[in-house]
Amino acid sequence: MQYTLKTTAIFQGQGLHSGAPVTMKVHPAPVGHGIWFMRSDVTSGDARISATWDAVVPSKLCTLIANDAGVSVSTIEHVMAALAGSAISNALIEVDGPEVPILDGSAAPFVEGLLNAGIVEQDAPVLAIRVLQPVEVREGDAVARLEPSDMLEIDFSIDFADAAIGHQAKVLNMANGAFVRELSDSRTFCRNADVIAMRERGLALGGTLENAVVFEGAKVLSPGGLRHADEPVRHKMLDALGDLALAGGPVLGRYTGVRAGHAMTNKLLRALFARPDAWILQDCEGRTGGKLPGVGVHHGDLPLRA
Known about the structure:
This protein is an alpha+beta fold. The protein is built from seven helices and 21 strands.
C-alpha cells in the first residue's frame, strides 16, 4: 500500500550552512503524487522541485535538488530518509528557504514528527524498483553497488584516520522498522578541523556541537558523546537510505557502500536507470510489501533518548 500523512507535520530549526531560521511543513498528498518540495519563499516562477534522482545537482557535503528554473533546496537527505523509513510514498514538503532544517543532525526528530502527524494507508499499491543485475560505480577507493536481493539491505564501511572513528562496518536488513530503531538517531559527523575550514569559507554557519558529532583525533567534542559506538557508519547508512529514496520508490536490492557519499549514491542511481536490463518496476503486495522499510512503524520504534 501507499502511505501519506493524516495531518501536516511542522518542523522549525536552522539551516546547517546558512544558520538562518527555517520552517518546513510536510503535507499529506494524494495517491501517485510522490515526494515533492515547494519553496514558499519563491513568489514567481516554478517553486516546486521533484525529489528524484534526476533533479540532483552537484553539491559538497549534502544532497541538493533543483528544478529547471534553478530553484533549489539542499540538505534533504535526512528528511528523505525519515519519509522512506516511515513508508511514506506521497507528501508535499513546503520549506521557506533554500535548506531543510538540520534539527539535531539525525532523522529521528523528523520521524517523530511524522508519526505525531499520523500515517495513513492509501488505496493503491506501492511501486518498487527491483534490482535485477549488479550495477557499480567507483571513484578511487570509494565504491557504491546495487545487486539483487528480496528486500532492501544496506552494507556500509568507512575508514577515517581519526582514532575516535577508525574503521567501522555494519550490515542491516531494512525491513519494517529497522531504520527507525537502528539508524534514525545517528547524527551527521565531522572533524573539528573541517568545521573550522568550512566556516572560513562561509559554510556550516548553523553547525553546532548539538546538531553534529564533532571529532578531534581520539576525542568526541560533542556533549554526551556518541549515541552508538559506531554512530558514524550508522549515519552513513541513514544518508544512503535518504539518497536511495530519490529513486522514486522503494528499492528492492542490496546496497553496498565503501567510503561512499551522497554523490556516489546518486551516480549509482543514474547508472542503474541507464540500464533497462538491470531493474523493473514491481507492484508490492502481500509479503513483499510488508517487508518494505517503515511499514508498521510506531512510536515504540523510536530510540529512547535520555
